[in-house]
Amino acid sequence: MEIHSKLPNVGTTIFTVIGKLANEYDAVNLSQGFPNFDTDPKLLQLVTDALKEGYNQYAPMQGSFSLRKIISEKIATLYGNTYHPESEITITAGATQAIFTAISTFIRPGDEVVVIKPSFDCYEPAIELFGGKTVPVELEGLDYSINWNKFKSAITPNTKMVITNTPHNPTGTIWSENDMVQLQEILKGTNIILLSDEVYEHIIFDGKKHESAAKYPELASRSIICSSFGKTFHVTGWKVGYCVAPNALMGEFRKVHQFNVFSANHPTQEALANYLKNPEHYLNLAQFYQEKRDYFLDAIRSSRFKMIPSSGTYFQVLDYSNISNESDTEFVERLIKEYKLASIPMSAFSLDGFTNRQIRFCFAKTNEVLDQAAEILNRI
């Protein structure tokens, strides 16, 4: 059979490649972004209760109403915007499914999608799959700031969508109020949809606040905002997320969603609806992960790596330019094979594989694992 691939240039993801190497060399693994510690026993018990109470058949296509209702209340409290739980909130099989569904719903052949680079690896294949064209805008400098003049020049009459991500994976940076205002001004008066990836919304450090697109009326009116319970509550394997959008956008989104997955895991939705009744379960997350970040950075302060402390997410970028002139992929491979420590090369997320000799580590690990990683980093 002759197969004509719709994604001819897409191979195995960097996470699979590094994960395989890490297993092969029994490396301390700070590469892929998931916690290695247990979730709250209270949440696990709520899932058990939901299973016993019979929530084992399909959830409503839109998601459990009780969960949508409490999400609406959470967003109204945090960001001052109200999304109707019946028509403007949908529970998804993880944030990645929400992002894929949003792209598949609105992108047609020839449409342009502005993507901020470095970027998470699920955006561009989905754009390509539906005939769209990625228009990349690269973040600048070691602090990964955005040049708004360059961003504005990337907007054309063919621009259908802009994808943003704050807090930002892989750089660990966040956008300020000024950034959001500039984005709002550039998109004002257009028909451009904003796909806002906000899966790390509750993981922000040093007293800073998350600038959700929901806070800005002009942005909110054109935005599909995606978030993740997996990231928030250390349960990435559950694959439960959600998205919010104005009624007109959400109506179109659900047309595709219902034939994509139809509905997400039912017992976990019921458990999450009950768990979210206590806001401390997500409001305390920033402090928890800031302690992890600080512990990791303090442990490697005597190393030869240069660092700008992460402002959000559970990722820390380290600069190895004082150590080696190797490409980041070569350096990462050598770290695994010679030192038994796994990380992710930043070029995997960047435009044309660009590297400024930086690599990404996930610090959502136990202190024991972070100590093992620090010991290795300090002797390189």
From TrEMBL:
Domain Aminotransferase class I/classII large: 26-376
GO annotations of cellular component type: cytoplasm
UniProt-recorded name of the protein: Aminotransferase class I/II-fold pyridoxal phosphate-dependent enzyme
Transmembrane feature ranges: none
GO molecular function: kynurenine-oxoglutarate transaminase activity; pyridoxal phosphate binding
Cofactor(s) required, per the database record: pyridoxal 5'-phosphate
Record key words, sorted: Aminotransferase, Pyridoxal phosphate, Transferase
Family indicated by similarity: Belongs to the class-I pyridoxal-phosphate-dependent aminotransferase family.
Xref: SUPFAM superfamilies: PLP-dependent transferases (SSF53383)
CDD domains (UniProt xref): AAT_like (cd00609)
Matches recorded under InterPro entries: Aminotransferase_I/II_large, Kynurenine-oxoglutarate_AT, PyrdxlP-dep_Trfase, PyrdxlP-dep_Trfase_major, PyrdxlP-dep_Trfase_small
Source species taxonomy: Bacteria, Pseudomonadati, Bacteroidota, Flavobacteriia, Flavobacteriales
